[in-house]
Design a protein that fits this description.
The chain has about 325 residues and is α/β, with parallel strands linked by helices. Helix content is about 45%, strand content about 10%. It contains 15 helices and eight strands. It has helices at about 1-5, 35-40, 50-55, 60-75, 110-115, 120-130, 150-165, 185-190, 190-195, 205-210, 230-245, 265-270, 280-290, 295-305, 310-320; strands at about 20-25, 45-50, 80-85, 135-140, 180, 200-205, 250-255, 275. Helix 12 links the parallel strand 7 and strand 8. It is globular, with a radius of gyration of 19 Å. The mean pLDDT is about 95. The structure holds phosphoenolpyruvate and magnesium ion. Magnesium ion binds near residues 143, 183, 204, 206 and 207. Magnesium ion binds near residues 143, 183 and 204. This is Phosphoenolpyruvate-protein phosphotransferase. GO terms for molecular function: kinase activity; metal ion binding; phosphoenolpyruvate-protein phosphotransferase activity. Its EC number is 2.7.3.9. It is found in: Cytoplasm.
């Protein structure tokens, strides 16, 4: 099995009938790059920029960030690198950035909410990304978008920084995609509107499951509510994919679920374009996809959407994809 996976390192990701999907990697530091290339990653679907802020005793400067993004962009040799802007808050704190004491940090001041209110931090990060865009294929993704206005505001700030650089004669790539994480149910519900403004969606199932089932992702007392196959969640995922496609945009997934071998056949059937996962799951997933037909997984997904429980869906997949 391991040998078969290794043989797929330089292969394209295709289903048995030849439909292409992208298998991308989630990475946390520039050092993870080797693992992505060794395991045949077609892109980086989620570059968590938090490490820059966490491994530092003060806010990382524009130059420090630029060097890190440039290294990853160059290292990927023209393959896309989706960099997520700062997702601090929730359970991630910075000693040098005072955040309010909160009753419910996961429902509090985090990610894009901080970026939009402390714009100097956000603008510094965007400028570093714009500069790095000259060294590879950078895309930018905003975390924890809940409303159309948040996305429009974030995008407007990005457009402003970009224009300032152009006016100053600094080079920037002209094909930078600007998209968003889909990890809050309100955003999924209004995804048809968001799809007019965002260049792509990437579904963050770790948070989307937490917020959909109202169950803290780190609380063992409610861990039974972590239900990635529950038809309620599958219907949200379908809506994200369908609304993206209706506007000619692509939809990916960068939560743990994207590399889950039970979920993958259903996600293929729902038409997910990009699967972003830890580097160590990529070849196994490419191998699984190669054995599946798109017509079969479409039927499977249609059936799953009409079941009632997480367990029923799991059993359906186990019985049909043996
Ligand atoms: C997610 O929420 O699924 C996600 C990819 O982001 P994080 O796990 O970093 O919150
Ligand atoms: Mg998240």
């Amino acid at each position: 099995e391991q040998a078969e996976w290794k043989s797929l390192k330089d292969a394209k990701t295709v289903s048995a009938d030849g439909k292409h999907f992208d298998i991308a990697a989630n990475v946390g530091t520039p050092d993870d790059l080797d693992g992505v290339l060794d395991n045949g990653g077609e892109a980086i679907g989620l570059f968590r920029s938090e490490f820059l802020y966490m491994n530092s005793s003060e806010l990382p400067t524009e130059d420090e960030q630029f060097e890190a993004y440039k290294k990853v962009a160059e290292g990927m040799n023209g393959k896309q690198v989706v960099v997520r802007t700062m997702d601090i808050g929730g359970d991630k704190h910075l000693p040098y950035l005072p955040l309010p004491e909160e009753m419910n940090p996961f429902l509090g001041y985090r990610a894009i909410r901080i970026s939009l209110s402390q714009q100097d931090i956000f603008r510094t990060q965007l400028r570093a990304l714009l500069r790095a865009s000259n060294y590879g294929k950078i895309a930018i993704m905003f975390p924890m978008i809940a409303t159309v206005n948040e996305f429009k505001q974030a995008r407007a700030i990005y457009d402003e920084e970009r224009q300032k650089m152009i006016d100053a004669g600094q080079p920037v790539a002209d094909n930078i995609e600007v998209g968003m994480m889909m990890e809050i149910p309100a955003a999924v519900i209004i995804a048809d509107k968001l799809a007019k403004y965002a260049d792509f969606f990437s579904i963050g199932t770790n948070d989307l499951i937490q917020y959909t089932f109202a169950a803290d992702r780190g609380n063992e007392h409610v861990s039974y509510l972590y239900q990635p196959y529950n038809p309620s969640l599958l219907r949200l995922i379908k809506q994200v994919i369908d609304t993206a496609h209706a506007e000619g945009k692509w939809a990916g997934m960068c939560g743990e679920m994207a590399g889950d071998q039970i979920a993958v056949p259903i996600l293929m059937g729902l038409g997910l374009d990009e699967f972003s996962m830890s580097a160590t799951s990529m070849l196994q997933t490419r191998s699984l996809m190669k054995r599946l037909n798109t017509a079969d997984v479409k039927t499977l997904a249609d059936k799953a959407l009409e079941l009632e429980t997480n367990e029923e869906v799991q059993k359906l997949v186990e019985d049909s994809c043996k």
